[in-house]
From TrEMBL:
Keywords: Antenna complex, Chromophore, Membrane, Phycobilisome, Thylakoid
One CC-aspect GO term: phycobilisome
Protein name: Orange carotenoid protein
SUPFAM superfamilies: Orange carotenoid protein, N-terminal domain
A GO molecular function held by the record: chloride ion binding
InterPro entries xrefs: Orange_carotenoid-bd_N (IPR015233), Orange_carotenoid-bd_N_sf (IPR036917)
Length: 166
C-alpha cells in the first residue's frame, strides 16, 4: 500500500492527538522504523514548506559534512546511521548531529529526504507500510496548523542524535 494524504483522511480521528504536546508524545512512542517512515512521509508531503520555514536552513552548510559522509556509505550503513540518530547511539555522526541547531536539524532531515527521493540515500522500501499508530500520528500532524506541524517536526528531530556537551 502506498501512503497518500487521502488514506490518512480515511483514518478515524484519534482524539488522543489534538495538540503539539500530545502529537509529539505520540511520535515519541513510535518504534525506530516508524519514526523514520513518518519523517519520510511528512517531509515528502510537507517538505516544500518546511525548508523555507526553517530559519536555520540557510546554515545547512553546517550539516553538509554529515550529509556527504552519509552519501558515501552503503545503503545498509546509511540506514544504520538514521537508526542510530533515532536511538541516540553515540557515534561520531550522531555526536556531530547533536551539536546542530534545531532548525539545521530540521533542514538536515529535509535534505536527507530529498537524497532518498533521488536514490542517493537508502529509500523507504516500496513495500513499507506504516503501523496504525504511525499513521494516526501522521494524520494528527496533518490536522495541525502549519506552525504546529513545524513545531512537532522540530521536536522530533531535536530529540535525535547525541549532545556531546550533555
Amino acid at each position: 500500500m502506498v501512503y497518500t494524504p487521502a488514506f490518512s483522511a480515511n483514518l478515524p480521528l484519534n482524539t488522543q492527538f489534538v495538540d503539539v504536546p500530545s502529537t509529539t508524545a505520540g511520535y515519541q512512542r513510535l518504534g525506530v522504523d516508524d519514526k523514520l517512515g513518518l519523517l519520510w512521509f511528512a517531509y515528502t508531503q510537507m517538505g516544500r514548506s518546511i525548508t523555507p520555514a526553517a530559519p536555520g536552513a540557510a546554515r545547512l552548510q553546517f550539516a553538509e559534512g554529515l550529509l556527504n559522509q552519509i552519501k558515501q556509505m552503503s545503503y545498509d550503513e546509511q540506514l544504520q546511521v538514521m537508526r542510530d540518530l533515532v536511538r541516540k547511539v553515540s557515534t561520531p555522526i550522531t555526536r556531530s548531529y547533536g551539536v546542530l541547531s534545531i532548525n539545521t536539524k530540521l533542514a538536515f532531515w529535509y535534505q536527507l529526504a530529498e537524497l532518498m527521493k533521488e536514490g542517493v540515500v537508502v529509500p523507504v522500501p516500496a513495500n513499507y507500510q506504516m503501523s496504525r499508530e504511525a499513521s494516526e500520528v501522521l494524520a494528527a500532524i496533518e490536522r495541525l496548523d502549519f506552525s504546529q506541524q513545524i513545531t512537532v517536526l522540530r521536536n522530533a528531530v531535536a530529540d535525535m542524535g547525541v549532545d556531546p556537551l550533555a
